[in-house]
Amino acid sequence: MNEITFDIAKSLYKARPTDAHKGTFGRALLYAGSKGMMGAAVLSSKACLRSGVGLCYVLGPDCGLDIMQISVPEAIYKTEVPDPNLYSAVGCGPGLGKNEETSRYLRFMLKHTLVPMLLDADALNIIAEQKWQNLIPENAILTPHPMEFTRLTGFTGGREDMIAEACRFAREHKVIVVLKGAGTAVIDTDGTVFINTTGNSGMATAGSGDVLSGIITGLLAQGYKPYDAARLGVFLHGLAGDFAAKELSEEAMIASDIINFISKGYLIFQLQP
Fold first, then answer.
1. Distance (Å, rounded) from C-alpha 84 to C-alpha 78?
2. Which of 138, 152, 212, 220 could hold 116 in an S-S bridge, CB 3.0 to 4.6 Å?
3. Does residue 13 contact residue 179 with C-beta atoms inside 8 Å?
């Protein structure tokens, strides 16, 4: 297996043009949040913005409007399903819940989204429950933790066997699988595997996956190819977590801390020769 090293991540990183405007860096749409789970939408949208995206839109329930406007004033909040192809990339799943309306909206997204797409958390759980695996668009990025992967595929083996099963799933459905965990595996549509080399146990905390979804969706919206966005996003997420742990300790880290150190990860890319 290959490893996502600093040199590989740096080679994927794109410097920003000096004559850019916010439209240069894309429009991300996050379908995230539900009553009692709006924190997931807050975390994923903040991470998306910190990834460098030009504009971040969030689709969520009416009850989330005030929370999002106050918590993330840079994000644009929507309560009615827009045309997903008006955006540069779409990320679905953080904190969605699984009610009937949410499932209906997700099915619409799966069937009609032509731009790059990320699926996480309850988006994957809905797909598993409804048996919609064949609706997943080609080249979509799936970011399951092991239990979500088990629900999606029915596979219950150990880590090495699960990576092998994820390779099979990626090839069959022509998708990119980010199998989260210690040494996150990023698997391309042809079964190529890269293992991440950043991150620590402090990142095993509520909301960490929402942050990763936001980062990768933001990179997709900026024009990174899906497999590059997945590899760079996973490395940057872990690197930010490593910086946070050095300052705060692994024990005391929370997901918001990862977001706060994304900037330091980018600075390292820019300053290291």
1. 12
2. 220
3. no
What pLDDT digit, counting tens, does each position of 175-186 carry? 999 999 999 999
Structure tokens at 170: 């990626």
At 5-49, the pLDDT tens digits run 999 999 999 999 999 998 999 999 999 999 999 999 999 999 999
CA quadruple 193, 198, 201, 202: dihedral sign = negative
Tell me the two tokens of residue 265. Answer: 């990860």
DSSP 124-139: HHHHHHHT-GGGSPTT
Output the six-digit token pair for 157.
């083996």
DSSP string for 81-142: ---GGGSSEEEE-TT----HHHHHHHHHHHHH--S-EEE-HHHHHHHHHHT-GGGSPTT-EE
